[in-house]
Amino acid sequence: MESKFIVIKHKRKDHTYISIATSNGYGKGYSNQIGLGRLEKLQEINPDPINVIKNSIKNLSVSESKEKIKQAVMFDLNSSKSETYNINYGINLLYDLIDKFEIFSALPKTRHKDLNRLLKYTVSSRILNADSLISTYKNKFQYENTPDYKKSSYYTLLDILNDNESIILQQLNQKITQNTSRNIELIFYDSSTAYFESFRRTGLRYPGYSKDGKFKEDQVVIGLATDENGIPIHYKLFKGNTTDSKTFIPFVIEMSKIYNIKNVTIVADKGMSVTANLRFLEQKGIDYVISYRLKSGPRDFKEYVLNETDYIGTEEFKYKEQTVASLYNKKRPNGHQRRKIITYSRKRALKDKADRDILINNFNKLKNKDGYVEGSKLLGHKKY
């Protein structure tokens, strides 16, 4: 007759720990012991976890792996919470979506095939709960049909994704193109930052200008290109102290190489509008639409913009344009012409004025008794 599991309580210092095991007989200890965690943590899931665990282990076989047994018990415990089923509905929808992408189909048919289930769970769990990888592993008992893998497999998955990044990105874009009306002749590019609450600086993590206002934290810079529907095409990570404009050229070179892009127009904001980037695009024959920061322009251009003549339109919206030679430091023409299109929107002007008024009010609030404000307190003031 096969041994049956029983519930065991262990008292250590100020906490009670719960585990399941099979008995070796009176006074002879236990075998097949599997720890489930601290009692108070289990009670956060269900006020009466012991009874739930007892019911769960009734039909469990000792011959199963410890990992699978623990997963079954913790799933039953989490299923006693009503919100568990809501989570499962969401994750199953994400599973179906990821299946359509066939992430590993372009890779050699080795162990990658078995990791597809793990990828689906890891990606979906990250979307539902933005936790760390180790938390994703620990919370796997909350979801139905989670693959029975050890912690090391989660990190192996990351290695495989990193080693085959270009192939996987090509596969994703091919599948998206097949299932949508994607047009990659028009690409939108921008960069952002992601910070880390960490005490150890490694790899790309480095302090830099934070768009999240987390100036004391290490970060990485993320370059991202999307199509006209906002669906990502390509991404690239940069060191945390890389300025926006410095991400542009290496990003475009890598993206063009991976996807063999020929005819394309790139749209970007004024952070990319530096001479080196524009000359690079012109040299490569790549069309572009990039915002221009008026206050950093030369005096003659500012005077041209402020001159009311030659505008076409109404007082609500009007525009004019100017064609100029592509120069470097006001010399060294490369034979290309640039069209500068100047627009005025009354609606946007009112919004910008309201934003400036908010900054002015905040400035006045930050004045000390002598009427001065420390520059470090003026977050966002350089924008104007």
TrEMBL record:
UniProt source species: Mycoplasmopsis verecunda
InterPro entries reported for this sequence: IS1634_transpos, Transposase_11
Gene Ontology molecular function, alphabetical: DNA binding; transposase activity
Coiled coil: none
Ranges for domain Transposase IS4-like: 187-349
Pfam families according to UniProt: DDE_Tnp_1
Annotated protein name in UniProt: Transposase DDE domain-containing protein
Gene Ontology biological process terms from the UniProt entry: DNA transposition
